[in-house]
Amino acid sequence: MICTARSSRHAASEPGADRGPLAGSPAWGGGCDWGQRMPKNFHAPRTESISTILFDWDGTIVDSAQLGLNAYYKVFAELECEFSEEIYNANYSPNWDKTYEALGLPREHWAKADTLWRFHYDQQAPQLIEGAADTLAKMHANGYRLGIVSSGNDDRVNREIDQFGLRDLFEVVMCHEHITQRKPHPEGLHLALARMTVSPNEVAYVGDAPEDIQMGKEARVLTVAVHSNYPCNARLLIAEPDIYLQSIGELLNYFPSVSKRIL
To answer: What is the reported pTM?
Structure first.
């Protein structure tokens, strides 16, 4: 089958190339080359009430951006559809139906694309984001309750959690199969809060996509954005997170322990 309603691949793109970190990535303490700036009246939010921290998975805990892109290339090749990395970068979303739509993949091929993507992703070996395991362990030891709210598939996310030895750190793991509404709808966060019996003012959500921040705002929790290599990360500050981090290890600066609050 041939998909004809396609834009051409970005001329400078090569499948499997290592893009590395996005250039000009900002922090609240400095400038930004993405046409975004820290608000002039920005003040670091108070975190005294936070006892529970929930995390996105892909791009936030596990470094899966390049692996996901590699899988997309192979999926579109098998479906005999031309893949445009330029369109992918401009429209990537953790709601992959939106990504398929932007890439011009006919809707009748979406289910097969899902199956192929999971197969090709699973042929690769994911790695944790640098500093993620240590940060999670310290936060858990310091009294924070931790959990995952991800748009990823349940079997993959839980397999990776076990692979990296993180199972004992998380009280709840909410994935794609547990919800009916995808990010930025707050259903996943609502379910996690209900399962952990916590209120929104006790919770922070950490993610690397605009949809993560939008979801957190809809759920009325504290939102924490973290830099990643996913293309949507370049649009992250537009969502106006409460806290922006260059790396996940910086979480400890805002959340030192449940008993020792930032004043």
So the answer is: 0.83
